[in-house]
Amino acid sequence: MLVVNEPQFAFLCLFSSPGNLRGRGFHSSGKEQTWLPFCVTGKEGLATTVLCGYSSAQTLSALQIPDVPTEFQSSPPSLCRSPRLPEHADQGPIFLLECDSSVLGALQKHLVLHKIRRKVSVEPCPELRVWAVLPGIPEEAGGAEPLPKHQGTTILTRDPRTTCMGWRLLTQDESPALVPRGRLADVWDYHRHRYQQGVPEGVHDLPPGVALPLESNLAFMNGISFTKGCYVGQELTACTHHMGVIRKRLFPVQLLGSFPVGSITPGTTVLTESGQAAGKYRAGQGNVGLALLYLEKIKGPLHIRTTGSGRVALTTSVPDWWPTATK
C-alpha cells in the first residue's frame, strides 16, 4: 500500500494483487473494540480505478514517487475480478488506486497516455466503496484489526500514511454491518480527525500542480522513495531532500474564536503579529484545517483575516506521528 503524489494528481495505491491483503503483525488484543466506519466514496469524496496487466507495475513505477511492491501472492481476490477487465488481467499484477472523485477521469486519461504500448488496462470501479475504519478510541488505532478474518468480497489494509488513520476497507457493500461492533459515523468527523492529525487528502488539500511532495510531508507518509529509479520530478525532490532545505511544511492548524462559515477561503495569507506573511491557509473544516507555513514563523502568534476583514487567531501543532528530528 502506497501514498502517491504524481505531479498532477494525488492518490493512494490501496491494494496490489497478487499481494498481501492483510497487514502483518496486527493481532487482536482480545478487547471489545468499537469501530467507526466512514464511507469516504461519493461525488465530493473518493473514487477508485483499477490498473492491471503484464506491465502495470512498470507503468505505475514511472509515474509515482514511492516504490512499487515486487512481491506478490498467487491470485487476486474475487472483489478485483470485474467483467470489464480484459482476459489477460489475471496474468499480471492488479493495482487499485484511490483518488479524489473530481479528478478520476483526468487520472485515467493520464495513465492511458503514459502506458504507451504496454499491456496495461485502466478501468474505473464505481461499484467499489472505500471505507475509512477508525477505532472508537483514537489512541488504539495501531491495535487490533476491524475484521476477525478475511472475507472474499472485501479488502482490508492498513492506511499507508500513518497508524493514526486506521484502516482502509474496500467492498461492494454500502452498509457498515460487515464491521463487527461498527457504528456508522459522519464522514465530516473523519475529515476533522484527518485535519487534526495533519493528514492531507484530495485536491483541496493537495492542489494539482501546486502542492510539492516534501512540503506536503509525503516523506513522513510512505510517499517518497529516495532509492528508486527515475520518475517525473525526481531531480528536484531528491536535491531538496539531500540538501535538507525545506522552508515550508503543511501543518495542522486550529482557528480560535468565532467567525462566519465560509469567511476564510483557501489561499488566504497567514500573518505574524507584526503583519509579515507566515504562509497560506490551504483547506479545512470548521475550526481545524491545514496551512502551508514557513518553519521559522510558526513559534510566534499567528492570525488570519476573514473575508469581512475580521481577525482570527490561529495556532499550529506538530503531530505526534511525525519523525522526532522534525519536531
Topology summary:
Elements: E1 2-6, E2 9-17, E3 35-39, E4 46-52, H1 56-63, E5 94-100, H2 104-114, E6 121-124, E7 129-135, E8 154-158, E9 167-171, H3 187-197, H4 202-205, H5 234-243, E10 248-256, E11 269-272, E12 277-285, E13 288-294, E14 302-305, E15 311-316
Write up this protein.
The protein is of the alpha+beta class and 327 residues long. Helices cover 13% and strands 28% of the residues. It has five helices and 15 strands. The protein has helices at residues 56-63, 104-114, 187-197, 202-205, 234-243, and strands at 2-6, 9-17, 35-39, 46-52, 94-100, 121-124, 129-135, 154-158, 167-171, 248-256, 269-272, 277-285, 288-294, 302-305, 311-316. The strands form three sheets. The chain has a six-stranded antiparallel beta barrel. It has a five-stranded antiparallel beta sheet with strand order 1-2-5-4-6, covered by helices on one side. The radius of gyration is 20 Å and the shape is globular. Mean pLDDT is 79; it is low at 1-8, 18-30 and 72-89.
